Structures are given as C-alpha cells and as structure tokens.
Amino acid sequence: MAFDLLFSEKKLGALTLPHRIVMAPLTRSRSSQPGDIPNDLNVEYYKQRASAALIITEATQISPQGKGYAYTPGIHSPEQIAGWKKITDAIHQQGGHVFMQLWHVGRVSHSILQADGQLPVAPSALAVTEGQAFTETGMLDFETPRALETGEISGIVDQYRQAALNAKQAGFDGVEIHAANGYLLEQFLKDGTNKRTDRYGGSVENRVRIVLEVTQAVTDVWGSDRVGIRLSPTGTFNSMTESDPFGLYSHLIEQLNPFNLAYIHLVERFGISKEADDNDFDFVHLRKLFNGAYIANGGYSGETAEQSLTANESDFIAFGVPFIANPDLPARIQKGAELNTPDFDTFYGGDAKGYTDYPALKS
Ligand code: PHB
Q1: Band of the pLDDT at 273, cuts 50, 70, 90?
Q2: Residue 69 in contact with ligand 1 by CB distance below 6 A
C-alpha cells in the first residue's frame, strides 16, 4: 500500500511535522525512586523513538497530589525538570518533537501514594469500583476519595499552570492536557463521577468548567498553538460512565474552539486490552466541530491510518502499543516491514527488558 498521506508533512499548531505518525502517551513506570525522576534509561527509550512526528510523553504527574501509580514520573520538582531536560535534548538532537502530557489522577490513587497519607481527591466522594491501585507496596484496594471543596478548584488549576511552566523549563515543544481515561478532569466531565451541586457539577456547562479553566491557564503559559487535549468520550476505564457522551463532548469542543488549540486527541478505542471494543460513537462529528487538528488513537495499523487520513477523518494518528515494541515504527510502516511483537508482561515497571531492547530494523 502507498502511504501518500501518512508520509506527508503537516502543520500541528506551531510545529511543522514531517509525517503523521505520533507516539501516543504510554505509562511505562520506570522512573527513579525516590522522587519519581526521569533517568538515563528513560532518555534512551525516548531517544530511540524520536522518528515519531511527535512524541507525547507518558502521563506525568503535575503535583504530588496528582500521582496515582508507583514509578510514574512527575514535573513538579527541580530534579524531575532536570531529568526531563535530558530527554527533550536527546529527542531534539535526533530532529524530533515532544509534548508533555499533564496528568492529575484524581481518585485513581491511594493514600499510600499521597503526601502525609491523605485521601486522594475527586469531584465527588465515589470510589473506583474495578481494579486496584498500583503502589510501591503492591496492589491495594481503591479508597473512597475526598470531594474537593469549591474553593480548592483554583488550586488544582494552579497545579496545571505550574506544571506547564515547569514543562517549558524542561525544554518541551508543548503540552497535552490529559482529560481522558478516567483521571481527574474526566471525573469532572462525566456524570457518573461528578455529583456536585456547585458550579463545577450538574449541567454540561458546569461539568466542563474546570477543563476550560485548566485550558486557559495552560494556554496562558504556552500560547494556544502549543497545547493539545486528550479526550475519551466512550471510555469506561477506571469505572467511568456518562449518560450522554455525544452531547457532553459536542459542547466541550464548541467551548474549546475559542482557544484555538493545536489539536484534540481522541481515544477512539482504548488499547490497553488486546481486544479493542468497537462502538458506533460519531467521532467524525467531533472532528468536524473542532477548529484545529484531530489526532486519532486506538488500534490503527499503517493501512487503516492511511484510510482515515484519506477519508479526511483525522490529521494525525497516534500509535501506542506498536511504539512500545518498535522504536523505528515510522520506517517499518513506510517499508512494509514486519513489526516486533509486544511483550505485555514488561509494559509496566522493570528495567531495560521490554523497554529499550526491542530491535530497530537493520539498515
Ligand atoms: C495506566 O497506567 O494504565 C494508564 C495511564 C494513563 C492513561 C491510561 C492508562 O491515560
């Protein structure tokens, strides 16, 4: 198959990217302890993948409160900023581009991961009902989080603002606001987790409010053309439910348009499981409604990516799992080469095995 569009240049906000293959954010849980600090092994991993048109980093905690998993990195201490600077330098030396994904997990955490053993925070005091929290001392049952006071929300927005400033210091090309996959911002968006009666809950206008405030803060720091946002309207990961995803996300996109963001990044299928669950949600409607670029994600191959671009249903395609196993994924797709098989057992945590030891094609 000819990949004419996949390997054509396109602008993404302030950047001009050489092709359309983006590396999706991937939690790999390999930062140094104590301190959740990016290290030299992480530098090697990202450097190997710099041929992506754009790398979006693994989800990165914006504050100690935003942490939800053992060994994930942060962007709130000087040591973390210095660690990330080595990564952005390595990617830039290879001619690549990189955005940092800004993450606050909300209720998807555990008091053992929080400062002074405090409860995780959320829009409402409702616990995650499936799965367990991944902590340094093993898997633990989720706890019922503490509902944030109205007066605390501006402090959450400030955490995003500070993290955006820190990401700038660390040499990133821009940032992605993580508003997907059941974490804090999505907990506000979706009505299964947001039972608030203040101006951050109830109507869709109220439920999108914190996302718009965060978007304002982050674009104040970066300029709108270096900011994107990730959304998962149909996602149920982390026990998420929404009674009217189409209405909610149509409204959200309309409200995001005045910010002139570089992109929206849609999780069309959640790819952590091998079986992607298909659905008939109208993602094309959201694409048409939005005034910037559309990055599609979820189970794409080179062929289906080219088809999506040809049908004008997306501008870029983000690949997750294929980038874990194939550091040189764009070259492999372009040449029609075979892909390495991902090893699910080494996705999270551990060392170089299953992280930096997947071979590139011999040239
Ligand atoms: C995960 O660690 O499983 C994870 C993190 C961030 C996501 C999705 C999954 O957005």
Answers
A1: very low
A2: yes
